[in-house]
Amino acid sequence: MAVAHTRDQTVRMTEVVENTETEYDVVVIGAGPVGENVAERTRAAGLSTAVIESELIGGECSYWACMPSKALLRPVVARADARRVPGLSAAVEGPLDTDAVLAHRDTYASHWKDDGQAGWLEGIGAHIYRGVGRLTGTRQVSVTTREGTEHRLTARHAVAVCTGSRAVLPDLPGVPEARPWTSREATSAKEVPRRLIVVGGGVVGVEMATVWQALGAQVTMLIRGKGLLPAMEPFAGELVADALTEAGAVIRTGVSATAVRRAAPDGPVTVELDDGGQQEADEILFATGRAPRTDDLGLDTVGLRPGSWLDVDDSCRVRGSTWLYAVGDVNHRALLTHQGKYQARIAGAAITARAQGAPLLESDRWGAHAATADHAAVPQVVFTDPEAASVGLTLRAAEEAGHRVRAVDYDLASVAGSGLYAQDYRGRARMVVDLDREILLGVTFVGPGIGELLHSATIAVAGEVPIDRLWHAVPAYPTISEVWLRLLETYRG
Ligand SMILES: Cc1cc2nc3c(=O)[nH]c(=O)nc-3n(C[C@H](O)[C@H](O)[C@H](O)COP(=O)(O)OP(=O)(O)OC[C@H]3O[C@@H](n4cnc5c(N)ncnc54)[C@H](O)[C@@H]3O)c2cc1C
Asked: Which top-rank group of organisms is this from (predicted)?
């Protein structure tokens, strides 16, 4: 396999480089968690690999998403859990130490510096280019550095677009002038606003509402639909809404923002609502969806539409192309770090196999070259109080997909382990059973401490473990996982 080419592979990221033309086996655009993992796989296979990054190596996940948000949520959820344990609750009655929580978050976001991850990427022998990567033709990529230098790269085998996604702001009057928060500001803010409006009730909305309410803001959520977490089973949103309301947040459903204004730069922000009312706060967060970072990527030079999500097959290769891959958020299959990294392992293996001329068995659904879990077994944990976790299909999605199914529900409060975990435990579990195959299509847990339980469900769903065999997976007593036994007993009647 080819390795070194025209330049020194150990070039430092701070070095000022001149215009160059260089050839690599693989060019990766975007060094978020997904781009890093594609490069890790292709380097491990001996393929020379260039990685282009326009901001920070580590991507959204490391600096403005998973890492800072979970660092902010952990003390909030731990305190809520501790407050439900007899003998401990009195010790945690006080407020959170805001400065310490924010400092913990800063540490987890590596103080928005990427030396560690850059060092790792260099350590695996990938060649880092700092700048904006753009496709310029078949297997051709340009890199424009901040200093204006341009590099022209050729990929012998594959270009992997791993440019991720960005927050979408609604097209409403006054939005840009009001300087709203997106997920970036919500995860990196240095001060707690006195009042915060959160527009949107998806995962980012509920997690950030949980954080800032617990840190002392008065949070008002404006939800267009009927409830929170609309992609999950309805009881997930209901239980999370109950807890947020008990924590002091105000949740207004069935209401949409129509305009936003902030009269003075340091003044409050006011939202006009479609019911004729208005709402005032010090900051407003729009948690209203994501868009692909493909608008300035040169997609038009390879016959694709700029600004579009990239449609890929199960090896993450763009449909109709022999050399272009799109991995992670940018392909819109599952906007989650762990799923993007899974796709990166698949794409890395597929690129390597094709570079070696090995035939890929597209029909091999258990193989290492097909991201089949994206269709059937995507796990997700919402790190709120209570946690909400799901894998696979909801009842509604399973019915809409035409499966003959039965939903089996169980009250988590009736499991021995939950009472020990927390007094007055509230939670619920559901498994969606495929009645024709007697396997699970989906599982949802909502309750304190259930996040770590999810992988058992992921194994059951991804492995298509027959119900008869699950019966022999005995949960330890007295843990919350005993809910498995109760769900199976309920199913068998
Ligand atoms: C608030 C929040 C919390 C989240 N929490 C979780 C969580 O707990 N667990 C979870 O699994 N997922 C979570 N996610 C989702 C997760 O952040 C994404 O799924 C993940 O970051 C996607 O990784 P990626 O590598 O595809 O894209 P990104 O992380 O977005 O990385 C893409 C990289 O490409 C670079 N780039 C873009 N265009 C170019 C270009 N033209 N040239 C060079 N570089 C370019 C960007 O600068 C960026 O560094 C969260 C998301 C948000 C917003």
From this structure: Bacteria
The pLDDT confidence band at residue 50, using thresholds 50, 70 and 90, is very high
Rounded to an integer, what is the distance from CA 272 to the centroid of its chain? Answer: 30
Contact 143, 65 (CB under 8 A): no
Domains of the chain, residue spans = 3-58+114-166+292-373, 175-288, 386-492
Any idea what DSSP says for residue 279? E
Q: Do domains 3-58+114-166+292-373 and 175-288 have the same CATH topology?
A: yes
**How many CA atoms lie within 13 Å of 57's alpha carbon, on the beta-carbon side?**
22
Instruction: Please say whether the structural domain 386-492 has been given the CATH code 3.30.499.10.
Output: no
- Look-up of token digits 């350590």: 123
CA atoms within 13 A on the CB side of 397: 19
Q: Are 175 and 182 in contact (CB under 8 A)?
A: no
Q: What is the pLDDT of residues 432-476, one digit of tens each?
A: 999 999 999 999 999 999 999 999 999 999 999 999 999 999 999
Residue 164 CA to ligand 1 center (angstroms) comes to 5
- Taking the CA atoms of residue 44, residue 45, residue 46 and residue 50 in that order, the dihedral angle to the nearest 10 degrees is -70
323-335: per-residue pLDDT in tens? 999 999 999 999 9
pLDDT of residue 363: 56
Residue nearest to ligand 1 atom 51, measured at CA: 65
Structure tokens at 326: 């799109």
Q: Which residue has the higher pLDDT, 1 or 362?
A: 362
SS3 content of the chain, % helix, strand, coil (to 5): 35, 25, 40
371 DSSP β-pair partners = none
Distance CA 393, CA 412 (A): 20
- Joined together, the tokens standing for residue 227 give 């409830």
Residue with CA at minimum distance from ligand 1 atom 1: 65
Q: Is the pLDDT of residue 274 over 70?
A: yes
Rounded to an integer, what distance in angstroms lies between the CA atom of residue 455 and that of residue 472? 17
pLDDT the model gives residue 11 = 37
pLDDT value, residue 417: 96
Task: Give the span between the Cα atoms of 193 and 69, in whole angstroms.
Answer: 17
- What is the percent of the chain where pLDDT is above 90? 92
The length of the chain in residues reads 493
> What's the predicted TM-score (pTM) here?
0.95
Q: Which atom of ligand 1 is nearest to the CA of 183?
A: 1
CATH architecture of 175-288: 3-Layer(bba) Sandwich (3.50)
Interacting residues of 366 by C-beta distance below 8 A, sequence separation 6+: 372
- CATH code, 3-58+114-166+292-373: 3.50.50.60
Q: Which residues line ligand 1 (CB under 6 A)?
A: 29-35, 52-55, 59-61, 65-66, 69-70, 132-133, 162-165, 183, 187, 204, 293, 297, 328-329, 335-338, 340
Q: Which residues are annotated as a binding site for NAD(+)?
A: 200-207, 289
